[in-house]
UniProtKB/TrEMBL annotation:
Function according to Swiss-Prot or TrEMBL: The purine nucleoside phosphorylases catalyze the phosphorolytic breakdown of the N-glycosidic bond in the beta-(deoxy)ribonucleoside molecules, with the formation of the corresponding free purine bases and pentose-1-phosphate. Cleaves guanosine, inosine, 2'-deoxyguanosine and 2'-deoxyinosine.
Assigned protein family: Belongs to the PNP/MTAP phosphorylase family.
Signal peptide extent: none
InterPro entries xrefs: Nucleoside_phosphorylase_d, Nucleoside_phosphorylase_sf, PUNP, Purine_phosphorylase
EC number assigned by the record: 2.4.2.1
Organism the protein comes from: Ornithinibacter aureus
UniProt protein name: Purine nucleoside phosphorylase
Pathway annotation: Purine metabolism; purine nucleoside salvage
Amino acid sequence: MTESSAALDLSDPATDPFEVARTAAAVVAERTGVERHDVALVLGSGWGQTGDLIGETIPTIDNTDVPGFGKAAVAGHVRQMRSVAISDTGRRALVYGTRTHFYEDKGVRSVVHGVRTAAAAGCTTIVITNGCGGLREEWAPGTPVLIRDHINLTAHSPIEGANFVHLTDVYTPRLREVAKGIDPELDEGVYVQFRGPHYETPAEVQMARAIGGDLVGMSTSLEAIAARQSGMDVLGISLVTNAAAGISKTPLSHQEVIEAGQAAAERCGRRLAAVVAAI
């Protein structure tokens, strides 16, 4: 490993993850020809079409061409990021078609690198989406739910050292109101992040419900914490792709998640595109 590549190794404790993010943002600016982006989107399972609906993509960049990013590890995710001109607003979105999950064992720094790169690229708002299990029987597969708060059960944080970040309003209330202005039927819930990659047991789902959870999944909370540390406003939206274990009467499968996401993709993508334009 050369000295320059070692300086970009997020797994090295001596590496400054924010410096890697600044280097990545500089590459994004060079490849896109856009000095500053305004809003970032992390598109989880079921949300992939949103990037096509918010405006014109100019251009697309392979993740592996940007320092600190890797290939998509999950079926249904896209290996590229794109710069999108948000229709009729004069603003730019940096759209991620995939994320690094905590269960990939690449470290929390890698999990939140996209968030920090977006902040370094100028984004002051981030929209974080996911596909998840629902704990409320009235939320059928294909139901979008705003994240009001989260419970982080990973036992990890992206924040290093004695840096005490305030998380009372980690999911910005003003942005949730904007989303409800576009779709008044949007419900809200508390998202519970488990480590994964296995699905939760029925007992774990009942525990999540007992401690105040409404949604369960394997992403989002670590990214939201990193976004707040960077001073970004955060809008979190889950797509219920399945009923959680013990609530569902059938075994869970990733294929079910993909199919539910595909069925709801255009409807949810159009709603989210309208929200992004209104932010």
